[in-house]
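Dear support,

We are seeing what looks like truncated structure output for some complexes. This example has two components. We would appreciate it if you could run it in full and send us the complete token output so we can diff it against ours.
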Amino acid sequence: MPTEKTIDFTRMPDSRGHFGPYGGLFVSETLMEPLEELRDAYEKYMQDAAFLAELDADLANYVGRPSPVYHAQRLSRENGGAQIYLKREDLNHTGAHKVNNTIGQALLAKRMGKSRIIAETGAGQHGVATATVAARLGLECVVYMGEVDIARQEANVYRMKLLGARVESVSSGSRTLKDALNEAMRDWVTNIDNTFYIIGTVAGPHPYPAMVRDFQAVIGREAKEQMQQQTGGLPDALVACVGGGSNAIGLFYPFLNDSSVAIYGVEAAGDGLDSGRHAAPLCAGTPGVLHGNRTYLMEDPNGQIIETHSISAGLDYPGVGPEHAWLKDVGRAKYVAATDKEALAAFHTLTRVEGIIPALESSHAIAYALKLARDMDEKQTVLVNLSGRGDKDMHTVAALDGLKI
Amino acid sequence: MSRISDRYKQLEERGRVALIPFVTAGDPGPAVTVPLMHAMVEAGADIIELGVPFSDPMADGPVIQRASERALEHGISLRDVLAMVHKFRERDTSTPVVLMGYLNPIEVMGYEVFALAAHEAGVDGVLTVDLPPEEADDLLSSLRPRDIDPIFLMAPTTTEDRMQRICDTASGFVYYVSVKGITGAGHLAIGDVAAKTAQIRKHTRLPVGVGFGIKDAKTAQAVAQVADAVIVGSVLVKRIEELRETPEEIAPAVAMILSSMRHAIDLI
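Here is the complete output from our reference environment:
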């Protein structure tokens, strides 16, 4: 294993999508050619000035970028320790970071002449972001979503339908995000000629982990500049929640070669890492192959994928992006976990102290950041990716308070 | 020479097209599988494909996914599947057995440990649906010294370049997936299959099997005219599902479907 100092992190993955032993292309033969086609198109258009100009214009005028970096002064003061800054991805159109990627992939789909878009979704944020861009570009859109997630994210299901998407309920397996992904893959393999599969996270077969990262890296590029403007330097630490890991890698990637910046990814510890009921493959899983890539997984000793648990549907996934797996192994990023309870407490704290209602996913990052900041000096800075807003979680939180809304 | 190559050589001498049934090991329960394998051989199967259950069978349709789920309810692991092959070999030392499944159970067991155990159990071929030749070097270097053939899929989307690469990597036989889609789906267009198998034969002298979308004796017969092997899965697994409450009826029912296919294939 190479040491951290000898690695240029911006040069990963290799030409076949490997991040060290992770990533790669583990799919059935039918998908090999379409994935090569996608890789070629992606490599071509990421060098294409007209494509990049259209993407930038959409990010500015449709998504509302750049999203602000906000110094949470009251929160920092009450918490004690380091100054906490929030990258406000919750202020994007559709309410989360997901749209950065769907805008990019949908433009690519259009360039490739595909008329039909499919996607998988857990919390529904990626589904909404996909249905949104499909509506705007006049593309047919089908979103696969587990039965369990449909029940706990009713509002987003309705939003997708309003936007003209068909939401397909998935009742196989654990009826959550991983099963939605299986079903979307099956659709893709069957309708390969006219269909573009917009994967919402930095997992899946090459080129998805690299492509989604590159579309999300706008988060980190902006944040780096904004922190320099506001504080005169780089943050001392970055914190982001990790399900599949797209908002995290989007923030981390532009900072990977800045060795003074400590990097923390926060997984969902559910009822606790010892309880077995969690969704923390990096903290408590083992390497394996699922959904087109090699990465850390929640699996049993026979290699069967096991059911995960998290209060937040968006983190309820048994795998994680291969780049995170690699960053963990080489030691560049540290992966920790926050329980349902800790995330909920952070949700209430941020809401009451700063007037910002975070998504339950992002609340995991807030929870760890508060803990981390307390052990740091008040002149130091922690930048947290506030990846989404909490509107979609109102009924989940209300139910815990015994209310039905 | 592997048991698979031996078998194809014998078939070629007899002018017979191979019939390869697929069933999921341990579906609907562990006791069913070994007697079912023997019954399938008696009904005219030349090679047996044994599915290794996996929690996330992405390339399979609902029929085979449910078979996996039934087997997993009994906790059937890769080691259990190998034990079934071992038991089958007590009475049948000539019918090749190919394991078909997904990479992760093998990955977690470890390639060397798996290859050794599979060899000892009497496995002849391994088809991992989600392992293209590009990622297969390590597994192949464990399988080859044990005379276990790596079987690879080719699809309607496979280009000439890839065809060559796959043929160079495969041994035993190659497997053409006749429809764009998942197992048990779609209708196969025999004209397209004929064109594609002819194209594949330009790249290899290995036997060419055709599967996905073979639903009855008629399609089996049509495919047999352009292929060296007819591979049939979902239609058998569906019958097994229908009879899951009366497992003693499964072997004769599956044998009946295979016999009719065997008969139709042998008419050509």
